[in-house]
Write a structure and sequence with these properties.
5-stranded mixed β-sheet; 10 helices; 44% helix; binds 5'-O-[(R)-(carboxyoxy)(hydroxy)phosphoryl]adenosine; binds zinc ion
């Protein structure tokens, strides 16, 4: 089955050409740049940008797949969750194409896409497995069942992991999106410099990262230079980034491995923008090796928002309906 998918739930305008069960024929992502000057996504600007970009992105994906729209069996789009105006642009584009060319229309869930994304471009991962989705809006621990079904073990109770990276970056005067900036700084710092709390919350599989973010703020307010409005030294910034990243990574990995062992699930996967973080990837690999688990990391191009994962999520629903 060949699926043309579009993704417009937040600030990436994306399209992909996909062949079941998991081959990506082409994958085009336009990351909107307009938001960086505001330090976060501005919903109204995001939908306007999607509107301007969506046709070009779809044309590009068709050309680079060396296919025609007549080769497609179905058109898929992200139905939820996301920014309402942004979602509407993708839906309208997908429904228009499906209507014009007489194709089947498929709806997909964005989080299901992230949870499955490690399956893209490989054939050695199939359900059941435990997926940790770590993105800007979600920190979810999801069992992907044998029938392609999803059961949530835990969710974020406040700030998602990516959101915490973005907010800490903002406190430190780093650019948006903050995750990659904090990671760059962390590479130059000492992860043991500041002992930020680890919110393990052993009685639940839920996550909470707002406390670490507040701990960073309290730490900064105690530094005379920060409190007087001066820029922190590179050394101090790097140490805070490294210590913050270490606390987040340790918490995520601990909770993922514990849940997998408790549930008796042998295969684990990551998904979402934070899954690009090299410290997290390295730590998950090491911890799963010692726990005897098999780990599947998505390729970098399938971590951040993309439409290949949307095609896969739509196909997964169709297959098991
Ligand atoms: O999955 P995604 O592209 O969009 C959402 O669905 O939210 O994730 C975006 C999030 C942002 O919070 C961004 O700061 C974070 O992923 N991120 C990272 C890294 N790259 C992106 N966080 C930590 N380290 C990174 N290298
Ligand atoms: Zn996402």
């Amino acid at each position: 089955m060949i699926i043309l998918a579009v993704e417009t739930s937040c600030d990436e305008t994306a399209a992909a050409f996909f062949r079941s069960p998991g081959v990506v024929l082409s994958n085009v992502v336009y990351s909107q740049k307009i938001h960086s000057r505001f330090g976060g996504v501005v919903p109204e600007l995001a939908s306007r940008e999607h509107l301007e970009r969506i046709n070009g992105v779809i044309k590009e994906v068709i050309t680079s797949a060396k296919k025609a729209i007549s080769d497609v069996d179905a058109v898929a789009y992200t139905a939820r969750p996301g920014l309402v105006g942004s979602l509407l642009v993708g839906r309208t584009a997908a429904e228009t194409l499906a209507w014009l060319y007489g194709k089947k229309i498929l709806r997909a869930d964005h989080i299901e896409g992230h949870a499955l994304s490690a399956m893209l471009g490989r054939d050695d991962l199939s359900p059941p497995f435990l997926s940790l989705v770590v993105s800007g809006g979600h920190t979810d621990l999801i069992v992907v069942g044998k029938r392609g079904d999803f059961s949530y073990l835990g969710r974020t109770r406040d700030d998602a992991a990516g959101e915490a990276f973005d907010k800490v970056a903002k406190l430190l005067g780093l650019k948006y999106p903050g995750g990659p900036e904090v990671e760059k700084m962390a590479a130059m710092g000492n992860p043991s410099a500041v002992n930020f709390p680890r919110p393990f919350m052993r009685d639940t599989d839920d996550f909470s990262f707002s406390g670490i973010k507040t701990a960073v703020l309290y730490h900064l307010n105690k530094l005379p230079s920060y409190a007087s409005g001066k820029k922190l030294s590179l050394r101090a910034t790097a140490d805070i980034c490294a210590s913050f990243q270490a606390a987040v990574v340790e918490t995520l990995v601990d909770k993922l491995i514990r849940a997998a062992c408790r549930e008796g699930i042998k295969k684990i996967a990551l998904g979402g923008g934070v899954a690009l973080n090299k410290a997290l990837r390295k730590s998950v690999l090491a911890a799963s090796r010692s726990a005897g688990l098999e780990v599947f990391l998505p390729r970098p191009e399938y971590c951040s928002d993309n439409a290949a994962m949307i095609a896969l999520a739509a196909y997964n629903r169709l297959k098991f309906k």
